[in-house]
Design a protein that fits this description.
Layout lengths: L26 H14 L4 E8 L5 E7 L9 E6 L7 H15 L5 H4 L3 E5 L4 H9 L10 E3 L2 E2 L34 H13 L3 E8 L4 E4 L12 H19 L4 E4 H4 L7 H9 L3 E6 L15 H20 L2
Parallel strand pairs: 3-4, 3-7, 7-10, 8-9
Antiparallel strand pairs: 1-2, 2-4, 5-6, 8-10
Length: about 325
């Protein structure tokens, strides 16, 4: 696997672009970057829209598919599910930057694997966190009585509302009125259903906590049938992350290393889609609250987490 040590110095992302990895981007800037990639690399990059939020923002995905060959296994990366975790969409953009703008470094990988990257699954909440409330975590659909939004990682339809969430519409952990009641999770469900026959790996990128997690999140005692494989690969990813900058990462079951909670994206993919390889990477912590990583540390975090992603992608390519 090639070194990404040059990433913090490679700040200009695309020809004519002013976007840089040393700051957080707005939802509109992320959209602009996707369009730049699709325009500059039309032979193997395309953009898809999977749905529209309650504030009329589109949920975009970038397809990276050399020669548009659909026979390859598919890796899906979901980012930005929780609004205040600004580093998550930036990791997705870093991954796109490496795979697309440095595609000549990854020819063997791109010849074996297709990628679908959703950089910002919760654009409404993200923009609200950027402009109004830095600690905001939910979406922004009105719930009535002055309350807004759903915790999207409690709204997926596997063991929905059985543990770890809240039915209070004002709570940060509000599970919604039903499974997939949020337009964002409905969009992701539809996207997953349309790609289920090709899906080899699903990765959710979140912040923070310095963990590599696998299902299930709803229980510390329930594991997928291939838990030995998941545990081994999660340990490999954790070692890769630690080897970059010396930060300690822990690997294990999501319901064991965190308080059990149902309705997560990884539980849905593992429990309903029955995809074998399903993980969450929780980036390193920083700032005052863990998720508010300072921009001065951003490039290092992106390089570090992109290395972890590549460990998973190379594993799929080798199958």
């Amino acid at each position: 696997m090639r070194s990404l040590l040059a990433l913090p110095l490679f700040l200009a992302l695309a020809a004519g672009s002013s976007l840089q990895f040393d700051r957080y981007w707005s939802a509109e800037e992320i959209r602009i970057y996707l369009n730049e990639l699709a325009a500059e690399f039309p032979t193997y990059v395309s953009i898809s829209s999977f749905g529209i939020t309650s504030e009329n923002r589109q949920i975009w995905g970038l397809n990276i598919n050399e020669n548009f060959d659909l026979s390859r296994p598919l890796v899906i990366v979901e980012s930005g599910l929780r609004a205040r975790e600004w580093v998550s969409p930036m990791v997705a953009c870093s991954i796109m930057h490496e795979l697309v703008e440095h595609h000549y470094e990854f020819e063997e990988l791109l010849d074996r694997v297709n990628f679908l990257i959703i950089p910002l699954a919760n654009p409404d909440g993200y923009e609200y966190s950027r402009t109004a409330n830095r600690a905001w975590i939910k979406s922004r659909t009105p719930n009535g009585n002055g309350c807004f939004g759903t915790d999207l990682n409690r709204n997926f339809g596997y063991r929905w509302n059985t543990v770890g969430g809240s039915t209070d519409p004002c709570s940060d952990e509000y599970v919604g009125t039903g499974a997939f009641s949020a337009p964002e999770t409905t969009a992701l469900r539809n996207m997953l259903q349309s790609n289920s026959n090709r899906l080899a790996l699903y990765l959710s990128i979140q912040a923070a906590g310095q963990m590599v997690l696998y299902p299930y999140g709803h229980s510390a005692m329930t594991n997928p049938d291939n838990v030995v494989q998941l545990r081994s690969l999660a340990n490999d990813v954790a070692r890769t992350l630690m080897n970059q900058n010396g930060k300690i990462f822990t690997a294990g079951g999501a319901g064991l290393l965190q308080s059990p909670a149902s309705g997560s994206s990884i539980d849905y993919v593992a429990g309903t889609n029955h995809t074998d390889l399903v993980f969450t990477i929780k980036t390193r912590s920083g700032g005052n609250y863990g998720y508010d990583i300072p921009e001065a540390e951003l490039a290092e975090v992106l390089s570090e987490t992109t290395h972890g992603f590549l460990t998973l992608a190379e594993y799929v390519a080798g199958q």
